[in-house]
């Protein structure tokens, strides 16, 4: 009996010592006993509101409402003050609170917990603290942190992930639009030599296709009975006095002009007083002979084409511009044209945008007028061109890498404060040399992410998806 009493005394002393240490750790008076501490904890737990229910066997299963296990055991009640966790910043043991608790709901702004999200980033939220299937605690989302898709990146994480930012500035974007095409003749500088009456080609001068001719140079000798009769009538009335006679002279001269007899030939007839056997038909302009159909001794009917001439001092570059780029092109924009068959680069300006789109190639035709004094540019020559589509003014521009383009939506991540980033939809404009024009959505001086922005965007989309979920109602 004495041995048993001695052992019992030793155990009682150890229990009292342990209770005193426990009480001391919680700020209790040295004289408080274990029984008093247990009574105080029980009273506090009984009076606190219910946070959630947990599995009675310690498994990581939780519930916001009362429930039982498959074998009929009721889930244990967890009240305020009983849910103990660890503060990750200090490592000290702290009592956890819930968004469902009145004390937490009435706390200062920025401390109130809104909900808990899955630690692995899955689209799962909870109004009360819980663990996932691997035993990891759900992460609390506090008021002020749940601001849509905004993301807070710590300095350490920012350095590890390689996040880089840049301030927006205004830049001059001279975006060149590249297109290809061919050289064509200026339609306004092409002439056809023909007769307006039945005629006979007496002789064709020594001119051939491809040779240059000067305005007034004789191309052929033509005899026309109708022209000869009109010339005889003109000579019969030349020298009439003013008045009615003058009107007759003018009428006779007009008849020759209607037959397309050159003015120089009519003056020569009036000066010589003779009707020539043939008429020297001159070239109407300077240019190259594109075609020669006149042959010695041939009969020409009214309207037959004898020669075709073209002035090539100015030519057109007809460029094929993709339909998607057509809105960037405007009349008057400068263009640089590089022909494959000639040295150097010619410069001109956009003169016309043709009103139509080729249904097979989905391109529109753009005309650029080019000076060609040395005739280096020839018809149907292939050319490559660059059209300066920018208007020359400074615009708000961001690096291409700052834009996250999903095809139908363009987003830029903006740093609103130190370490806080939010997505901002934008409307884009011209692109040039690694920069893109920002027409809407941003302002000059804002800081945008230009490196590792896809990582922040992924987290932003996840936060937006989580905040869009409807959390279950708080237990009562």
Describe this structure in words.
The protein has 476 residues and is of the alpha+beta class. 21% of the residues lie in helices and 35% in strands. The protein contains eight helices and 32 strands. It has helices at 2-25, 34-47, 102-105, 155-161, 225-237, 244-258, 263-272, 453-467; strands at residues 50-54, 62-63, 76-79, 84-86, 93-95, 113-117, 125-126, 139-142, 151-152, 164-167, 169-172, 176-185, 190-194, 199-204, 212-213, 218-223, 279-282, 287-292, 299-300, 305-310, 314-322, 334-339, 346-357, 363-371, 382-388, 394-399, 403-405, 410-417, 420-425, 427-432, 435-440, 447-451. The strands form nine sheets. Strands 12-21-24-23-22-25 form a six-stranded antiparallel β-barrel. Strands 9-29-28-27 form a four-stranded antiparallel β-sheet, with helices on one face. Helix 5 runs antiparallel to helix 6 (244-258). It is rod-shaped and about 135 Å long. The two termini are 56 Å apart.
């Amino acid at each position: 009996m004495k041995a048993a009493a001695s052992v019992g005394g030793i155990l009682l002393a150890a229990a009292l010592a342990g209770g005193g240490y426990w009480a001391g750790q919680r700020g209790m008076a040295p004289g408080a006993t274990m029984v008093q501490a247990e009574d105080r904890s029980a009273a506090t737990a009984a009076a606190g509101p219910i946070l959630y229910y947990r599995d009675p066997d310690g498994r990581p299963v939780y519930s916001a409402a009362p429930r039982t296990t498959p074998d009929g055991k009721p889930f244990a009640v967890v009240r305020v003050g009983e849910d103990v966790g660890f503060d990750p910043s200090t490592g000290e043991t702290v009592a956890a609170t819930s968004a469902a608790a009145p004390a937490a709901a009435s706390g200062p702004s920025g401390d109130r917990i809104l909900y808990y999200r899955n630690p692995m980033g899955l689209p799962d939220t909870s109004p009360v603290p819980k663990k996932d299937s691997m035993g990891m605690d759900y992460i609390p989302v506090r008021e002020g942190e749940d601001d849509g898709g905004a993301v807070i990146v710590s300095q350490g994480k920012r350095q590890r992930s390689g996040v880089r930012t840049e301030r927006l500035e205004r830049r001059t974007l001279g975006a060149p639009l590249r297109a290809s095409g061919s050289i064509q003749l200026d339609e306004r500088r092409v002439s056809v030599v023909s007769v307006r009456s039945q005629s006979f080609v007496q002789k064709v001068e020594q001119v051939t296709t491809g040779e240059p001719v000067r305005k007034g140079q004789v191309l052929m000798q033509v005899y026309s009975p109708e022209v000869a009769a009109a010339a005889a009538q003109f000579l019969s009335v030349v020298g009439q006095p003013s008045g009615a006679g003058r009107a007759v002279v003018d009428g006779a001269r007009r008849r020759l002009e209607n037959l397309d007899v050159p003015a120089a030939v009519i003056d020569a007839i009036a000066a010589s007083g003779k009707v020539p056997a043939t008429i020297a038909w001159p070239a109407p302009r300077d240019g190259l002979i594109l075609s020669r159909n006149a042959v010695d001794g041939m009969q020409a009917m009214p309207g037959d084409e004898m020669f075709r001439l073209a002035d090539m001092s100015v030519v057109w570059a007809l460029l094929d511009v993709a339909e998607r780029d057509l809105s960037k092109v405007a009349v008057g924009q400068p263009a640089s044209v590089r022909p494959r068959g000639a040295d150097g680069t010619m410069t001109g300006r956009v003169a016309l945008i043709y009103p139509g789109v080729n249904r097979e190639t989905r391109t529109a035709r753009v005309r650029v007028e080019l000076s060609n004094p040395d005739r280096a540019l020839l018809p149907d020559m292939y050319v490559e061109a660059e059209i300066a589509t920018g208007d020359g003014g400074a615009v708000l521009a961001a690096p291409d890498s700052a834009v996250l383009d999903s095809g139908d939506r363009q987003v830029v991540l903006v740093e609103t404060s130190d370490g806080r980033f939010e997505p901002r939809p934008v409307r884009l404009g011209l692109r040039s040399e690694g920069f893109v024009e920002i027409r809407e959505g941003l302002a000059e001086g804002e800081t945008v992410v230009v490196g590792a922005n896809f990582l922040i965007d992924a987290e932003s989309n996840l936060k937006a998806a989580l905040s869009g979920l409807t959390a279950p109602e708080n237990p009562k």
